[in-house]
Every structure is written in structure tokens, then in C-alpha cells.
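Sample 3 of the quickstart, ligand magnesium ion:
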Amino acid sequence: MQMIAPIRGMNDVLPNEIARWQRLESVARELLHAYGYDEMRVPIVEQTDLFKRAIGEYTDVVEKEMYSFEDKGGERLTLRPEATAGLVRAVISNGMLRGARHKLWCVGPMFRHEKPQKGRFRQFHQIDVEAIGFAGPDIDAELIALSASFWRRLNIDRVRLQINSLGTAESRREYRAQLTEYFRAHYDVLDEDSRRRLEGNPLRILDSKNPELQSLIVSAPSLPDYLDEESRDHFAGLCDRLQALDISYEINPRLVRGLDYYSRTVFEWVTDALGAQDAVCSGGRYDGLISQLGGEATPAIGFAMGVERVVALLEQQTAEADGPAADVYLIAQGEAAQRAALVLAESIREHSPGRRIELNLGGGNFKAQFRRADRSGAALAVVIGEDELSRGVVQIKPLREGAGETCEQTLATAAASVAQWFKNSGQS
Ligand code: ATP
Ligand code: MG
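Result:
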């Protein structure tokens, strides 16, 4: 029969890769807790209009990357391409605003119909962090500090921070006019996307990935020259705090980010270790978004981290990819011994929470079972044959040199469980 193919750009995370994902997630969970953020879970599907309104009609995401469909009831829905819109929608729908402040985060898959390549997928994962109700720049600095300590905890050092200020929508108006004029004067050089964006949202052109446009973009009018005074102060306040925190940064005047809802602070952590897909964590302030989505005007800032790209950075630190190892492997031969081992394994698990206790399943001779035990990575084998069973003992064999403390601890709990079990089953 013909195989059913996986969907292009959507990956399976295999057991030998999962340790890095889990490490990343547990470090993130710990840090987010430490900084006062609460996890929230929202649907993966939302009304298409939510993303159109939040992200902007002239973005790559809305123009060509959304997985949109009509459901059986005729509703126009979209698989979320990013998390901020959904979280903000949820905060509004649940009546959580009313002047309150929220520090929230979520993790999960996002969907964009992009051209799949290294570091760019159609289903990818983000850790998304949002601080709602804070005008900054203190929260801007704290949020960036949180991302910086994330890299420290994971020993990731090939990342650099870029920041910029987009000013307010009003202050961008003049800049936008200048930019439109500039790009119009170079209309013949522009690609099709940029021509379309010229009238709709010329700032988008600055975010173009087309290499042929880069020199034109570099010489374009510079956004910081057009900032209003308050945005300038806000930005200076952020820079000042980053210096106090000893977080180095580069000001990139062309950093505009790919979504329309940003205002004032934007930032991006980039790496030189992953080739073309260099952004690992991107964020910014979105003071206008909440009212744009029907909530009361509330300032907010957030970021999203690309999990696959961070996992790829972790992968470069440690080349070997092993699945999680067992602590104890139970070997049993003969029907009665196998039954005893099944019960004994339960007892060891009960007495050693957090340990991985694997029972040999499906029989096999001692040699085959020891081979499996070895492959499981277990530090210890507990062996029961008919002889052991009749004498009321088990053999405990260390399988790994230098398992050290783990070995001793498991040995102690295993021995206690064994003793307990023999006592209960009245065999000793
Ligand atoms: P890029 O410039 O790489 O397209 P973006 O500006 O579209 O990124 P955001 O929408 O801000 O990115 O998403 C935040 C983070 O999510 C990015 O910094 C990146 O790490 C990750 N990311 C975005 N799109 C993808 C994708 N298609 N596959 C894997 N990771 C992605
Ligand atoms: Mg993109």
C-alpha cells in the first residue's frame, strides 16, 4: 500500500531530539515564573479577521502565508501564524483588561505557508511572552533582560541584540511620506511585493529579504531621524537601562519587524550560527493593538522565540543525540519470574519517582535481554531467573561505569523495593 507522506515543512520531533526541547522548555518555564509571568493556553484556530486586523493586510504573513479555510459551518478560520493576536483576543474576550496588568506567556505551534528551508518551516513553535498594561521603558528593559538570561542559562553565546524605535503611528506618518517618495523614485528597481507595499505600507519594504533590494534599503531615509520627542525619550530610557544591566546591544535603524502592530521599541536577537535564518527571538511594543482589536487602549510589549532555531543552536553545543536513558532494566526468564518482574517493576517505580524503570517485555533469552538492557542505557540491571525466584533473591548488576551517585541511589531504592516485594509475596 502507498505510504501517506508527511506534510511539507512540518516536522516530527523524534525521541533522540526531545531532550533539547524539554531542556529549553523547562528553562523557559522556570525563568518566566521567576520574572512573574503566568502561562495561558488559547486555541490554535481563530477567526481569519483577527489576524488580518492585528498583523496587517500588507504583511507577508497575511498576504501569502496564512492557513485559512472555511469550516463546515461556513466560518472563516485561520491556523494561528503567531501568538500575540490570539492572546490579546483572549485577554479582551475574558474581560481581563479593566486597567489590570498581565504578564503572560504561552508555547505552541504556529503555521505559515512559507517556502520550507533550513530554520524555516510551515509548522514551527514559539515561546511567546507578553506584558500587557505596562507603558515602559522599564518593562521593555526587563523583558529584554529575561531573554538575555534565557541565553545565559542555556549557555548560548552566539546571539546579538538589535534594537530600534518605530516611534508612534503619528510620528511615522511623516517618515512614511518620505519613504514612499524615495522608493517611488526607484520604482523600476523594486520587486513585485515591494511595488504593492509602496502605497499600502512602505515600511514593509525595509523588511524585504530580497538581496537585490538591500543596497536600496540601506540608503533609504532613516527612521530614527523622524522620531517624536516622547518616543526618543522612551528609547533613551531603554538604552540607559540596558547599559545599567550590562546587556550589549546594537541600534539597527532599519529594524522594522514583520508585523504591522509594533510601535516604539522593537528588538531582535540574531545569530551568525544558523545561516540565512538568523532571527531567534523577536519582539516589540504594540501600544495600539489592543484598541485596534476592540479592547480599551492599553500599552503592551512582547516577544516570540523561535523554538526550532534555539534547538538548532543547542544542537551545535552537543553533537551526540541520545534518547533518554533508563535507570533500571529488569531482566526475567521463565513465566513465574516474568510475572514477578512485572510486579517488582511497579514497586520500584512507586518507590523511585522520577526514575525510568524499564521491564523486559516479550521474553527472550538472557543474552538478548542483556543486549536490550545495554541499549536502554540503564545504569543497573535487576535479574530474576527461576533459580533466583526459588531462593527469594534477585541479582543486581551495574551496567555502566561511573554511574556513581545515580547508581547507588537506584541500587538502594531497588534493593528496598526488592526486599519489600519478597516480604509482601511471602517468598523470603
Ligand atoms: P523571519 O524574519 O525569520 O521571517 P519573522 O520576522 O517572520 O522571522 P516573527 O513573526 O517575529 O518572525 O516570529 C518570531 C520568531 O519565530 C522569529 O524570530 C523566528 O525565530 C521564529 N520563526 C518565524 N517564522 C518561522 C518559521 N517559518 N520557521 C521557524 N521559525 C520561525
Ligand atoms: Mg517571516
